[in-house]
From TrEMBL:
<feature type="domain" description="Xylose isomerase-like TIM barrel">
    <location>
        <begin position="21"/>
        <end position="256"/>
    </location>
</feature>
<dbReference type="InterPro" id="IPR026040">
    <property type="entry name" value="HyI-like"/>
</dbReference>
<dbReference type="InterPro" id="IPR036237">
    <property type="entry name" value="Xyl_isomerase-like_sf"/>
</dbReference>
<feature type="active site" description="Proton donor/acceptor">
    <location>
        <position position="240"/>
    </location>
</feature>
<protein>
    <submittedName>
        <fullName>Hydroxypyruvate isomerase family protein</fullName>
    </submittedName>
</protein>
<keyword id="KW-0670">Pyruvate</keyword>
<dbReference type="Pfam" id="PF01261">
    <property type="entry name" value="AP_endonuc_2"/>
</dbReference>
<dbReference type="InterPro" id="IPR013022">
    <property type="entry name" value="Xyl_isomerase-like_TIM-brl"/>
</dbReference>
<comment type="similarity">
    <text>Belongs to the hyi family.</text>
</comment>
<dbReference type="InterPro" id="IPR053398">
    <property type="entry name" value="HPT_OtnI_isomerases"/>
</dbReference>
<dbReference type="GO" id="GO:0008903">
    <property type="term" value="F:hydroxypyruvate isomerase activity"/>
</dbReference>
<dbReference type="InterPro" id="IPR050417">
    <property type="entry name" value="Sugar_Epim/Isomerase"/>
</dbReference>
<keyword id="KW-0413">Isomerase</keyword>
<dbReference type="GO" id="GO:0046487">
    <property type="term" value="P:glyoxylate metabolic process"/>
</dbReference>
<feature type="active site" description="Proton donor/acceptor">
    <location>
        <position position="141"/>
    </location>
</feature>
Length: 262
């Protein structure tokens, strides 16, 4: 079975953020991810990882003014200096947390799609050059337009075309099966299409349509987990869903998986 990482921004919200590391470890998770680490000093987070034997597998670069509705800066012309500063901050955290992946959010298209495209490619090339000497891989994630209207990057084919255009080996696709199901569907065929190329560096899951536990909704995840094994996927699968109740009580879906690895 795949290796599952707890997304601490969404799971264990019944306790304070720094307490979620212990809760995830107690439930058997060996890896964690979350949206943003910047409210805490790197040393605080590193101490939690070390104390509970957890690997930090992913977090997001600064997205701009999140509370004001910004969802990344990569495609926003005129914000290049802020984008670079955010990447440098994220890389500092990645080094301190021994985290090999940073998700770089694209942003909401500001009007001119052509200008957004050119800005996005230039920014990702710059970020990839900064990350490469540190051994960090940057992730780009298609996000469905229902949940995030106007988001620049929405489809798997678009993401893989951008990888070819950016031309950096340390930029990969973060394939969230929740977003992919809502925006495109045909999940098994897309996994068969894209995983063998080696450019999908991280997966995420949630039930559709409610973004709750993966055993609630229209996706039959046991079939997809078996397909990941068949395709030889060795990366992490982030559990980025909103529990319908207490997190631990809703982990039956995971405990039922044969030889589940958390």
């Amino acid at each position: 079975m795949p290796r599952f990482a707890a997304n601490l921004s969404m799971l264990y919200r019944e306790v304070d953020f720094l307490e979620r590391f212990a809760a995830a470890a107690a439930d058997g998770f060996q890896g964690v991810e979350y949206l943003f680490p910047y409210a805490h000093a790197p040393a605080q987070l590193a101490a939690q990882l070390q104390a509970h034997g957890l690997a930090q597998v992913l977090f997001n670069a600064p997205p701009g003014q999140w509370d004001a509705g910004e969802r990344g800066l990569a495609c926003i012309a005129g914000r290049e200096d802020e984008f670079r500063a955010g990447i440098e901050q994220a890389l500092h955290y990645a080094q301190q947390l021994n985290c090999p992946r940073i998700h770089v959010m694209a942003g909401i298209v500001p009007g001119c799609i052509d200008g957004a495209h050119a800005t996005y490619v230039a920014n990702l090339r710059l970020a990839a050059a900064l990350a490469a000497p540190l051994g960090v891989t940057l992730m780009i994630e298609p996000i469905n337009g229902r949940d995030m209207p106007g988001y620049f990057l929405q489809r798997q084919a678009q993401a893989h075309a951008l990888l070819a255009e950016i031309g950096a080996a340390n930029v990969q696709v973060q394939m969230d099966l929740y977003h992919c199901q809502i925006g495109e569907g045909d999940l098994a065929m897309k996994l068969r299409q894209y995983l063998p190329g080696g450019r999908v560096g991280h997966l995420q899951i949630a039930g559709v349509p409610g973004r709750h536990e993966p055993d609630v909704g229209e996706i039959h995840y046991p079939y997809l987990f078996a397909l990941l094994d068949e395709l030889g996927y060795a990366g992490w699968v982030g559990c980025e869903y909103l529990p319908a109740g207490a997190t631990s009580a809703g982990l039956g879906w995971l405990r039922r998986q044969p030889q589940s690895v958390m």
